[in-house]
Give the backbone structure.
Amino acid sequence: MACSPGYAHLLNMTEAIAEIDSVGNLEISLELDLLAEFASAERYYAAAQSDATQTPGTERFARLAAAVELIQDDVKIGLRVTQVQWPSGYSLSDYQNQISWPKTKVQLQGRLNAASPITIRFSPTFVFEEPIALTIRSTETGKRKSRWLVAGQKSPRFDPGSIAFERTDVSFKETVNQAAIFVVYGFSHIIEGGWDHLLFLLALCLSTSRTLTLIARISVFTVAHTVTLAMASYKIIELSAYWIEIAIVGSIVFVAINNLWQQSRKNANPTGHLLDTTVIWIFAFGLLHGMGFASSLQSLEATTDYFLINLLGFNLGVELAQICFILAIMGILTTLDHRGLGKITRNRLSWLTTLIASVWLAWIVATT
């Protein structure tokens, strides 16, 4: 399965660095995964190999330049693409692989008034993989601002001409708005593309028919997931995305097979105790799933404005998505339990989960 635009681990996020010199020359360096823009790995790969698409003057890159909206004194500053560097050394299988994510480097230039504040907005008219890690800096004053953005969201105001460093306006209203944006983003990020995360949660839901036991197990998973997400965000841990992804899919296989083993025991009914030894490996797998975010967060500095708010908002969105998914699954299973179909449904879904995760794991290993 090729990487989807909303893949849960953020490894294909857009990275943008905007530099402004003393006379107002602006250069923006972008690193983009264009898979979603091209709609398929095959088209993205073909474009990277074609001489016709190498030049910055193509329609696609003109649209990209128009989508990077730089606003100064309520006027949009025109940008032009000056250089395109397609991914090199990749085969078609790399473009199809959900771990590689070949990125294209694009340089844009423009001219502005170095004495006036600016904001940058990435328009949804071009498909930017989110979040967009933006850093704006002045080569003259040494000032810089960094922020996670989503498409359509304005960057903080940046005044390149002022020697004095701007105080970040951390107002209550702006804090709430920023948190709300990333709650929504975290929620959609899991629901739309977090298939490995959701498949693991499904396996957990199938591991017990007791609501309190499930709540305890999900809570343990959530705490562990949050711990390593925070550690990854602040660069306390840095691990290989390849091995983490293999381990995450392997964890799904383990839980699904364990469910089948529990269900195969004579007269077994997958209930479980509120807190038993199962929570140990659930906690370990929670740490593992949290580490899945590590590689994607290394490009963004921990000093970024609203970094903690973004992180908490994103994590809250992820947890809300988890809760909605779990409630939906448990509602279905409870209804089936009342009709005497719960046990056989759990068994068949456990087999299906095992099959999907096993094939997924084999595919990752075979294509990387």
Notes: Confidence is low (pLDDT under 50) at residues 1-8, 299-303.
